Amino acid sequence: MNSRRWVLAAAVSSLLLAGCDEPKQSTSTAPATQPSQVQQVAVAPDLAKGTTAPAKADPTTKPAPLPEISTLLVRETGAADDPGILYEFPRARLHINREDKTAVLYTDDPKTAINRDYSGNSYYLVIPLEGEDAKLDGYQWHFRAAGSEHQDSTDGLFRGGQRFHYQPSDVTIAFQGDGPTLKVAVIGEFSRFDMQQQQDAHVGVPVFVRGIVSATIDNAK
To answer: Pick from 17, 50, 90, 91: most CB atoms within 10 A?
Structure first.
């Protein structure tokens, strides 16, 4: 258990040290107020590099603003040779509660997310904070679930609205930065449950999630 924890910690550190740039998005990406789309990654992923080179902008034309989104790469089969799928999420936010000693990494979901037919993606991850240091820069947290059964919880990743629940199984989360916006690296194993097939009574499908998101701290000025 300890050896796997240190492997994940080393991997997430290498992600942050190698480069914190998120994968580049094409200008055809849907805005955060619409259900997010899926990009298929055709080559072995490297989140320290962009998936595509950005097009050169016309110097006489002001480029249109890109939608605020975050991305996470998911190996749906859990196999080492799975190139993974790059899923889009609304922009990331971070809520810090010093009294409860928690930091909540969550997506800034659109108002339509409460609709039954909403098919966008989201995440909500509660990270306990240890120690008295107020700074998150360099802080790492590792979580390992006691079992593989589905838990009735809002924690985790959600795809297709509430269709698929990705429950944390063996995950490391790390923070980098000291400002209103931080880089947050997420890497590790999740258990995928298909909620429309009443899979909550069964063991989840292991998947591997990896990515770095830029999270704006709530009420940051």
So the answer is: 90
| Residue 51: both structure tokens together | 């998936």
Would residue 142 count as lying in a domain? yes
Spatial distance between the Cα atoms of 94 and 104, rounded to a whole number of angstroms: 6
CB 145 within 8 A of CB 168: yes
Domain for residue 29, yes or no? no
Q: Which of 161, 94, 86 is nearest to 125 (CA)?
A: 94
| Domain that includes residue 210, residue range | 2-23+34-43+67-217
Number of domains in the chain: 1
**Mind spelling out the 3-state secondary structure of 25-64?**
CCCCCCCCCCCCCEEECCCCCCCCCCCCCCCCCCCCCCCC
Residue 54 is assigned to a structural domain of this protein: no
Rounded CA-CA distance 161/147 in Å is 25
In a domain? residue 57: no
Q: pLDDT tens-digit profile of 50-87?
A: 444 445 555 555 554 445 688 999 999 877 788 999 99
126 contacts 153 by C-beta, under 8 angstroms = no
Task: Give the C-alpha separation, 159 to 151, whole Å.
Answer: 17
Q: Which of 79-83, 87-91, 178-182, 203-207 has the highest mean pLDDT?
A: 87-91
